[in-house]
Every structure is written in C-alpha cells, then in structure tokens.
C-alpha cells in the first residue's frame, strides 16, 4: 500500500502530526506544572497581602504614608502636552482590553498552527493568573485611591495593588523572556524594562495610585513571574 501523502501546507500537516498531539497532551496534563502554578499563585497572593498589611500597620492605608504624599506631590508637575498625553494613554497597554484581543488569538496560533502548546499554555496561564491575583487582592483589601487631586486616565476598582504594574511585570516580562529565548533578541527585554519604568511613573503622575500600590504590584507580579518560570521548567 502506498503511504499517505502529506499536505503542502505545514499548518495542515501539524494538525495531523502525532508527535505534536502527544506534546499537547503532555503539556495540558502535566500535574507537576499545575502543582507549581498553584504554589506560585498562593505565594503571589501572600506576598501582596504581606505588603498591604505592612502599610496598614504603618497607618498609611487610607490617606497614605508621609513619604507617599511627598513623592506624589513632587511628581505632580506639568509635562509637555505630548508627554502628558503619552502618560494618559500608556496605561491602556496593561489592560485586558489589549491583552485578550492580542494574546487570545496569539495563544491559539501557537497551539494549533505552530505546534507550540508549551508557549501557548504558559502565556495563557500567566495572563489569567495575573488578573485573578490582582482582582483577589483588590477585593480583599479595598484600598481607596489617592484624593490629592483628580485622577486621570484608565483606572477602575480599588487602589491596591497596581494592576498595571503587575501586568507589565509578569505578562509582558514573560513575553519578553520568551522572545529572547526563542529568537535570541535582546530588544524585547530592553522594551520591557523601559515600559515597566514608564508605566510605574505614569500611575503616580496621574494620581491614581499610592507609591505602595505600585510597589505591591511589582512585588506580587514579580513573585508570579518567577513562580511561573519555575512551573514552566516542569515541561
């Protein structure tokens, strides 16, 4: 009997490649990976909670710590109109309105078309987990936002932690690292660091977060980022 011919379309062949199907099953059903993700999730929530409790203990939860008020006052300066608009628009990059339309189809493409379920899985898990952790912390502590002046730009819900700082730290950090590993490109890491600095600055400049909100977001996002990389080593 003659062997079946392969399609000229690699994407079609990938759907019928047994080795790729096995890879998908190994990734999705890797119990060690999911155990480590669960540990990373809890560790991130605990880290964020500890940071919040320190601020509460110091007496600056509602009206801010003294250094926070001083810092926000110094950062509330007039920037050139172009930079000001940049600070207002920049935080939109760290919202689900951007992540879901971009990363959703991207994960599907990696999983189905490129035969890389490992990349699709870790990107989806880090993105969803980041949102769940941040939402849980906001609901658990419900810190009021600064009222030193009228906040501007994109902001919803409680002040702590900064969801934008968390998202840039963990989700964008993961994407930058994956691009570096897969393509050997250093520029995504540089963009990640610059975007992280600019985002943290914008949250304070716009008056929608206390500095400890941003610190809490960086800490929580950093633990989630590190824990996710640890979980990824399972496969």
Structure at a glance:
The chain has 235 residues and is an all-alpha fold. The chain contains ten helices and no strands.
Based on Cα principal axes, name the global outline.
globular
Average pLDDT for all residues: 86
Radius of gyration: 21 Å
Work out the strand percent: under 5%
- What low-confidence regions span 5 or more consecutive residues with pLDDT below 50? 1-17
* SSE string, helices as H and strands as E: HHHHHHHHHH
What structural class do helix, strand and pairing data support?
A: mainly alpha
Mind describing the biggest β-sheet?
none
Considering DSSP H and I runs of 4 or more, what fraction of the residues is helical?
Answer: over 70%
Q: In total, how many beta strands?
A: 0
Task: Provide a count of the helices.
Answer: 10
